[in-house]
Design brief:
Elements (H helix, E strand, L loop, with lengths): L1 E5 L9 H5 L5 E4 L2 E4 L8 H5 L5 E5 L13 E5 L1 E2 L2 E2 L1 H17 L3 E7 L5 H5 L6 E6 L6 H15 L3 E5 L2 H13 L4 E5 L1 E4 L5 E7 L4 E5 L7 E5 L16 E3 L1 H4 L26 E5 L9 H10 L3 E4 L1 H5 L20 E5 L5 H4 L7 E6 L12 E4 L2 H18 L1
Parallel strand pairs: 5-8, 5-10, 8-9, 9-16, 10-15, 11-15, 17-18, 17-19, 19-20, 20-21
Antiparallel strand pairs: 1-4, 2-3, 6-7, 12-13, 13-14
Helix pairs in contact: 5-6, 8-11
Bound molecules: flavin-adenine dinucleotide.
Flavin-adenine dinucleotide binds next to α9, α10, β20 and α11.
């Protein structure tokens, strides 16, 4: 973009630029004309100026050599000696992208006892994993400094970070450090031959899928929505080289002091459940949800819902599956009175087995259900509960 320059020696303060600015970005203060933040350098003011007092100066943008930035770096989230499951989803996607363009995948682990992560990562398709030893708890400034120094030394074209609380705090800080773009909560990623990462995510409340690129800067940073990408399985074909903290010798420090920590009880959200029973608007009354909850409990799972029931106030939003809710990857998902809207189905792509109960033979949910059951949920669910209880007694 160009910059607008106003030559106050020529300016006669006629105000034509102010009236004609489509962005209301120009103001007059005493004997001065001032450009505000809204200026888009459209040049309209320059055209209407009768005394040619307004000029434009091209920004001397540093030209980017994309070849200087290559490969993919995955930020591997690590808490209490355990690699967060989202990291395996990121590694899987990074590997797939890397293969398509001949890039290697690197990993970075920051935290306490990082050496214990070796066992959990050793057979994943990562060329090298950098282990940075710190205190137990996430400190945004310290972690950003470490991540940025790692980025600075590897110069990856792409950096993938989980769309978790930690990732959402870390990624924007790193993006600012490198004055580069960041797309949050991506649901799909494609790497073009020109090495530009097409970062796809719902926008405008899920009404469109935006495709975002960062063509002028590197690295390209993206956070990725939990449970959308398929996790990769380890394989003996892969052997990771681990680079220890002592060899890197980072000097990062934090301005934050943690005075106390109060552990909250660990509650499994619907994203961690292996079995989910999903209530849709086919459920007629709020009290009927008890029947679905009973089914979920018998199967050792949880009750979730479509947005329809959240809007009715029958279910809380943390139980909503879909584009504007949570993405899930259970082994078993039973939908009850769910039509299968595009927005709902966007959240269940990772479900291994889907049983769909619906009374409408044309319901869209049947197109993806592994076990479609055509019928009235008020007849089928009690029958299912009875069968499971019978089986329980027999055992
Ligand atoms: C921007 C945007 C974002 C959205 N995000 C989400 C989201 O994240 N998650 C989400 O779920 N929705 C979302 N929606 C809403 C979505 O478009 C649908 O309106 C919603 O998913 C429909 O929910 P449903 O399937 O419960 O209800 P319906 O579409 O009304 O379907 C009810 C189904 O129940 C069946 N049925 C009725 N009675 C019975 C019975 N007795 N036995 C068996 N079957 C029966 C019917 O045949 C029907 O198929 C979003 C919409 C927009 C515009």
């Amino acid at each position: 973009m160009a910059d607008i320059i106003i030559d106050m020696e020529k300016c006669i303060l006629c105000g034509k630029c102010i009236i004609n600015c489509p962005f209301s970005a120009i103001e007059k203060f005493d004997d001065y004309i001032v450009l505000g933040e809204n200026c888009k350098a459209c040049g309209q003011c320059r055209e209407v100026c009768p005394v040619e007092a307004i000029g434009m100066e091209e920004n001397k943008k540093e030209t980017l050599d994309k070849n200087e930035w290559r490969d993919i770096l995955v930020y591997i989230e690590y808490h209490h000696n355990r690699v967060h499951p989202i990291s395996y989803q990121l590694i899987g996607k990074a590997y797939e992208l890397g293969v398509s363009i001949g890039y290697d995948v690197y990993g970075i682990v920051v935290g306490k006892n990082t050496e214990l992560s070796k066992e959990q990562l050793k057979n994943y398709p990562l060329k090298k994993v950098f282990l940075y030893e710190t205190e137990e708890y996430f400190k945004s400034d310290l972690y950003e400094e470490i991540l940025s120094s790692c980025i600075g030394s590897i110069k990856p074209s792409v950096v993938l970070i989980g769309g978790t609380l930690e990732g959402r705090s870390l990624a924007p800080r790193a993006a600012i450090e490198f004055k580069t773009g960041l797309t949050a909560d991506c649901t799909e990623l494609i790497l073009g031959e020109n090495t530009d990462l097409v970062q796809i995510r719902p926008a405008f409340g899920g009404n469109i899928m935006a495709q975002i690129v960062t063509p002028d800067t590197r690295p390209q940073l993206a956070t990725v929505r939990y449970n959308v990408m398929k996790p990769i399985e380890p394989s003996l074909d892969h052997e990771v080289e681990f680079i220890l903290d002592d060899e890197i010798g980072h000097k990062a420090s934090s301005k934050l002091t943690i005075l106390d920590t109060i552990p909250t009880p660990k509650i499994k959200g619907i994203q961690e459940q292996e079995t989910l029973v999903v209530a849709g608007k086919g459920v007629k009354r709020k009290e009927d949800l008890a029947m679905l909850e009973e089914l979920a409990n018998l199967l050792g799972g949880e009750l979730a819902s479509t947005r329809g029931l959240v809007e009715k106030g029958w279910m809380t939003s943390d139980r909503q599956i879909g584009l504007s809710g949570q993405s899930v990857r259970p082994k078993l998902l039973i939908t009850c009175g769910v039509s299968g809207s595009v927005q709902f189905m966007a959240g269940i792509g990772g479900a291994e087995n889907i049983i769909a109960i619906n009374s409408d033979i044309d319901a869209r949910i049947f197109s993806i259900a592994h076990y479609p059951i055509l019928g009235d949920l008020y007849e089928i669910i009690p029958e299912l509960i009875g069968m499971i209880e019978e089986k329980g007694k027999a055992i």
